Amino acid sequence: MADDYTHIILADDDEDDRMFFTEAFEELKMNTSVRTFNDGVYLLDHLMKNEVVIPHILFLDLNMPRMSGIECLVEIRQNSRFKDMAIAIYSTSASEEDIESTFIKGANIYIKKPSDFKKLKKMLSNVVTINWQYQTNGLNRDNFLLRL
Amino acid sequence: MPLKSIYRAPWFVKVVFVVSLFIVFFIAGVSYKHITDLSKSQELVVQTYKVNVELEQILSYLKDAETGQRGYFITQDSLYLQPFLESRSKINNSFAELKSLTKDNPVQQKNLKELNVLIENRLENFDLVSAYTANDEHTELQFKMIFLNGKNIMDSIRVKLNGMIALEEKILKERQDVYKSDMKFTPVFLYSLIVLTLLLMYAAYAKISSNVDKLKRSNQRLEIFKEATKQSEIINKHGSWRWEVEEDKFHFSDNLFRLLGEKPQSFDHTLENFMRYVHPEDIDKLSAQVEQMKEDQELPFIYYRVVHADGSVHYLKAYGRSTVNAEGRVQLLGTTTDITDEIDHFNTLEQRNQELELNNKELAAFNYVASHDLQEPLRKIQTFLSRLEEKELEKFSESGKTYMARINVAATRMRSLIDDLLQYSRTNKSDEVLVETTIDSLIEDAQQDLAESIVAEDASIKVDRLPQMKVIPFQIQQLFSNLISNSLKYRSKGRKPEIHISYLKVLASADERLNNAQSDFYHRITFSDNGIGFDQEYAEKIFVLFSRLHNKDEYSGTGIGLSICRKIVDNHGGFIFAAGVPNKGATFTIYLPVS
Asked: Which pLDDT tens digit goes with each residue over B212-226?
């Protein structure tokens, strides 16, 4: 992989959220390539292709039709090909149960979708610039939920 | 009290019986001996009199002989010799009689012998006189000599006889004296013995009758107890039974029959009869248990069903233990209870639980809707608003900008309402476990949550040392977080917010606010601030859901925060009270039970 892009994928069934997501990265002007999928099934179809470029960070919405974010998370974490891929949960709710179960099932960070576009940009930029090596090793329940 | 204790001893009556029996035998023996003695002494008296009579007789015979002999001497007529001739054999008879009467008295025997010699002499003297008289060859002088001699012998005989009679009378007197002294002492002795026996027997009688009274009272109590037990069996739906191990016989109480839906004592007390009522599916199990029971002489708790004649199924529970009865025989006492009601209640409870669980699930689903589905469109409205403000605000007119601002305020308020409601419904959870927690660190975390506002308002929070408590950590953190944010929100405009959290362990009985306390000791956490306070009349109202004391334009509360606080404290079995002084500050006092 010769390019210097940070490859980012978002799986979210909500059209508006996908739009906010891509617009935020456009405005951030970081060296990122963003792809979006409409649900978990499309996402996995894509990821399971042999010639696929494994993204650096995968953003997963939890509440999706056909295949939920948690199911995607479980499936992906079972596959060693994606062991270096960071998974960020990207959800409207931040209930204790969701945070707990996604943490246990191997997500790296939990982002509650903000209600302010500026905040969204700040969060996404934070996530992209995190030293993932450090974040993944120090699996820490306390800073799992991203706070700004 | 040795006498009393002897009287109370259980062997007392038996001992009295044996002693009385012994005394009666003794009295009988003594009486027999005395009667024998009496008759013996009677015989002795008779014997003495007989001896005396015989002695007098001998004298009288001699006198007869003397008289006859004198008649013959004077008249020469042999007719007068007749008594003299007869006297001889009569004297001999009397002598023989006397010999046998005095055979146990050697002195009298000796006297008799001497008397015999004297009598022989006298008779010889008579013979001499007779011979002289018949031959007529007597001289005056000779006669005088012979007569004198005869008189002397006669006198000696008299003296001898009198001596013997006196001796006999003396012996009689001695015997009578001994007998008299015996007779004098014996009745007193016997009388006292009888009195003693009567006393003992009276004591025994008193004891027996008091025992009988006691027995009667015990019987009465037993009767009452039996009746009470019967009633208790009916009320509590249990029956009792007894299995006599050696005879292999069963006894069923009245109510056991009722438990089987039958009239009391309506069939023979046998295992086979009982088994006829047992539910077909439970017969094998119960039979096996009964066999085991016969082996172990113990019946552990066993559950089985019985079918009544009307077809209804009842659940029974039985238990039995072996005891040894008064006669030393082993018997198994058992109790059987109808637990159909319990089972029904249990089933109802189970059903209710399921309903409740379903309700909880629905509530959780509602939570999710509230947290996710409602938040999502709102979040988008807010995001689009922020996009509009960022990119298009300049194009709006002044009123358009005002509308935008109002929309923003309304959306923000809706968000805080949804967030608070969600939090409120989350504190509903009853399955949270209490964990030993350092409260200080929970307060610290709460401050961390609100760090931004605390810094912004330049608030100072003073926290005393708090001990470890058993709490639901995230709820208690929420409690402090809500209280702190409450204080910050209702701060006084003129001064910096100051919050003081203090602690004291209190005795429930010593604190008048803890009337309904379940625990003996409580943790009392006092949370006070210097904010705007409130009128004391609203102290209770502020905990009610959605209740607010201020217009929402002045203060941005949702009216949920303090309701959450109360709910959290309720969840912990504690109490929360509010006290306020307008423009001085508010104090919240939290009591949590010491576990």
From this structure: 999 999 999 999 999
pLDDT for A1 beyond 60: no
Q: Which domain holds residue A76?
A: 6-137
DSSP code at position B369: I
Is A94 within the bounds of a domain? yes
Nearest Cα of chain B lies from the Cα of A43 at a distance, in angstroms, of 22
Which chain B residues are within 8 Å of A98, Cβ to Cβ?
A: none
**From A95, which residue of chain B is nearest by alpha-carbon distance?**
B371
pLDDT digits (tens, 9 = 90+) for B473-486: 888 998 999 999 99
- In the prediction, which pLDDT does B430 show? 60
Can you tell me the mean pLDDT for A18-37? Answer: 91
pLDDT of B1 > 60? The answer is no
Give this prediction's pTM.
0.50
According to DSSP, the residues that pair with A8 across neighbouring strands are: A34, A57
- Exposure string over B528-561, b if 16+ CB within 10 A, otherwise e: bbbbbbbeeeeeeebbeeeebbeeeeeeebbbbb
Q: How far apart are CA B411 and CA B419, in angstroms?
A: 12
- On whether residue A143 sits in a domain, the answer given is no
CB B334 within 8 A of CB B318: yes
Cα pseudo-dihedral A87, A92, A95, A98, rounded to 10: -30
Work out the number of other CB atoms within 10 angstroms of the CB of residue B22.
11
> Are the CB atoms for B41 and B179 separated by under 8 Å?
yes
Q: Is the per-residue pLDDT at A141 higher than 80? A: no
Question: Within a domain: residue A144?
Answer: no
Interface size between A and B, measured as CB pairs under 8 A: 40
Cβ separation B383–A115 shorter than 8 A: yes
Q: Which amino acid is at B30?
A: V
Instruction: Provide the domain count of chain A.
Output: 1
Q: Does any domain span residue A108?
A: yes
Asked if B382 and A116 come within 8 Å (Cβ–Cβ), the reply is yes
pLDDT of residue A138: 52
Residue of A nearest to B389 (CA): A117
Q: What is the DSSP string of chain A?
A: -----EEEEEE-S-HHHHHHHHHHHHHHT-SEEEEEESSHHHHHHHHTSTTPPPPSEEEE-SS-SSS-HHHHHHHHHT-GGGTT-EEEEEES---HHHHHHHHHTT-SEEEEPPSSHHHHHHHHHHHHHS-HHHHHHT--STTSB---
| Number of Cβ within a 10 Å radius of residue A9 | 22
Q: What is the pLDDT of residues B180-199, one digit of tens each?
A: 777 777 778 888 888 888 88
- Distance, CA of A131 to CA of A14 (rounded, Å): 29
Report the alpha-carbon distance of residue B484 to residue B477 in Å, rounded: 11
Does the pLDDT of residue B160 top 70, yes or no? yes
User: Which CATH number does the domain housing residue A14 bear?
Assistant: 3.40.50.2300
B387/A117 touch (CB, cutoff 8 Å), yes or no = yes
Cβ neighbors of B491 (< 8 A, separation 6 or more) are B457, B459, B497, B529, B531, B532
Amino acid at B134: A
Q: Which of residues 23-62 of A touch B (CB under 8 A)?
A: none
Contact B390 A118 (CB under 8 A): yes
Chain A partners within 8 Å of B387 (Cβ) = 117
The answer to whether the Cβ–Cβ distance between A20 and B474 falls below 8 Å is no
